[in-house]
Specification:
The complex is a heterodimer of chains A (about 180) and B (about 325).
Chain A: H1 4-11, H2 15-37, H3 40-57, H4 67-86, H5 115-124, H6 127-137, H7 143-150, H8 154-181
Helix pairs in contact in A: 1-2, 2-3, 2-4, 3-4, 4-6, 4-7, 5-8, 6-8, 7-8
Chain B: H1 3-14, H2 20-32, H3 34-51, H4 62-87, H5 92-95, H6 100-106, H7 108-128, H8 131-142, H9 153-165, H10 173-189, H11 212-226, H12 235-241, E1 252-255, E2 261-265, E3 270-274, E4 280-283, E5 290-296, E6 302-308, E7 314-320, E8 326-329
Antiparallel strand pairs in B: 1-2, 2-3, 3-4, 5-6, 6-7, 7-8
Family (chain B): Belongs to the zinc-associated anti-sigma factor (ZAS) superfamily. Anti-sigma-W factor family.
Protein name (chain B): Anti-sigma-W factor RsiW
Keywords (chain B): Membrane, Transmembrane, Transmembrane helix
Amino acid sequence: MVEPGLIKAAQSGDRDALITLLREIETHVYRTAYYILNNEQDAMDASQEALIRIYTKIGSYEEKAQFKTWIQRIVTNICIDKFRRSKPTVSIDEHEMVFREKQNVEDEVLSAYALQDIRSAIDKLPEHHRTVVVLRYLQDFSYNEIADSLDLPLNTVKSYLFRARQQLQSLLHDYQKGGVRG
Amino acid sequence: MNCQEVMELMQRQLDDDLSDAELEVLMNHTRQCPDCAAMLERMKRLSAELTALPKVTPTYSLVDAILPELERLDRLASHTSSAIESDTGITAKAVSEPRRMPRKRRWATWSAIGSVVAAGLVAGLFIVNDPSALKNSLADKMSYSMEHSLPEVEDTSTANLFRQMTPTSGQSDLETKSFDKRTAEGSSAGGDANSNPEAGGDVSIKGTSNNSSEQGNVTGIVKDQYGSTVEKPGESDVSKEDHPGMGITSVKEFASPDGRFIALLEQHTIAIVSADNGKTVKQTSRKNGQHGQVAWSEDSSQLTYEVQLDRGAAEKYVIETSNWKEKKATH
């Protein structure tokens, strides 16, 4: 998404190139922050903080990592810090929740989930699970790219993503059933 | 293959991670198992919904909003790096990055003078105070890893150094003043309308507060704490002109009268750090509402602050420094 030439120029001290680069990535940075923090103002703050950090740390970026995973690493770290500071710790539902609602599937109406429900379900995920989902769906990252961004083993990424999707699925299913009844 | 194992295949299928053979296994299973077939449909639908989440964009240019802060960092960077390189030689490698070089050239006209003064000042401080302690704290600040440090940390640490030391080092007092002046000049020379005249190495990152009278107060208090004599009439007027939406996470500092603690005002919380070692001794619980009116009692035994709630209401809180208990005060 960002020209390698632009990154090189920015690293070699071309301030205009660095500013141009920041402009190119600001939406990507913001989008991640927005879905992790689930709050526009916090997302604005976090992404500005991330952009400032990218500005000051551009010299430490090494080409062996993908640039996009490098910036996502910065913004997710800031968001997770912020998230921890602003929220009481969310207890993580690590135990099995597979096939909790195998029954009743047949009478399920296949209507679209309300956007609000999806957002609120994402908000219920523990921070790392949520972050993995955001990188997978908002940044369109592969397992490997997510692993690089979060400095997690590949298997952990998969297990977070799978568990997160399962939890989302069951939360949304509950919402939907609640909606039908109420 | 049991349903549990099939679940993993379903998950991987959502990410296009299945081989043809694995896909075959999955399809064979779902043909015979209605539960899994239904689950697969639901997971697919979830995945499609997640893919379709709105691609939100910021409501204003974030880069424009941080430009003043970036300029401030540039100025500070040329000060800190040259001061450290010339004086201690420690951790300088960690902070001097390639891109700094052209930056120095850009500001060469005045930063040369400024950094000489800064270097002199730092040198003075090192003599006055216990050098090992200082070096350690400096090294700590500098070696903050990328993942954990705020970008401002390096800079405020320098600011802290200057402020902490000024009262004890009489002979460098004069230098501090001229240093401040140069910084202020530097910022106007930068030609940036949004940067604050007092912003060279001091606190003042402007927040999103609409309460301009409060900001005026803040500026006043901060200047008192610094003991700086760079008086600029109409300075608080300048603060008022700041766009309310332009702020980044605002951090404002309030040193206790006895100099032992610094209260850091963040958006929804206040942290009190020890002026000696920078350790956080108290972090207030997050409260929704604009924090302000931060004030130390004269004997430094209490810190009071207010939280602006909706519809003009405000809550006042008092923190006792003896036990770091926080309680709601009656007005």
